[in-house]
Amino acid sequence: MRKQAKKPFDQSMIPNDLCPIATDFSVLITGDWRAERPVVLREKCVKCATCWGYCPTQCIVEKEKWFEANLEICKGCGVCARECPHNAIIMIEEQED
Amino acid sequence: MPKTIVCDGNEAAAWGVALSRPDMVAVYPITPQSSLAEYISQFVADGIIKADLMDVEGEHSVLSVLQGACLAGARTFTASCGQGLAFMFEPYFRTPQLRLPIVMSIVTRDGITPQCVWGGQQDAMTVKEVGWIHMYCENAQEILDTIVMAYKIAEHRDVMLPVNVNHDGNYLSYGVERVELPDQEDVDAFLGEKNTNWHVALDPERPMGVDPLTGGAGGPGVSMFVRYRKGACQAMQNALGVITEVHEEWGKKFGRFHPPLIEEYRMEGAEYALITIGGMSGAAKDAIDIAREAGEKVGAIRIKTFRPFPVESLRKGLSKVKAVGVVDRAVNFGWNSGPVFQEILSTLYFLEKRIPALSFIGGLAGSDITVDHFARAIDQTKEVLLKGDLVRETIWLNEND
Question: Which structural domain range is residue B290 located in?
Answer without folding.
Answer: 262-396
